[in-house]
Amino acid sequence: MNKATIICELAKVHEGSFDKAINLAALAIANGADVIKFQYYDLETMAKEHPNYERYKKSYLNIEQLGRLKNYIEDQGKEFLLSCFNLHLLEDISKKLGCKKIKVPSTYASNERFIKECVRLFEEIYISTGFYEIDSYAPYAAYDALRMVPTFYGSPSIFRFYCNSVYPTPDNFLFFDWLNLSDGMIFDGYSDHSEGWLACLHAYGK
Question: Coil, helix or strand for 9?
Answer without folding.
Answer: strand
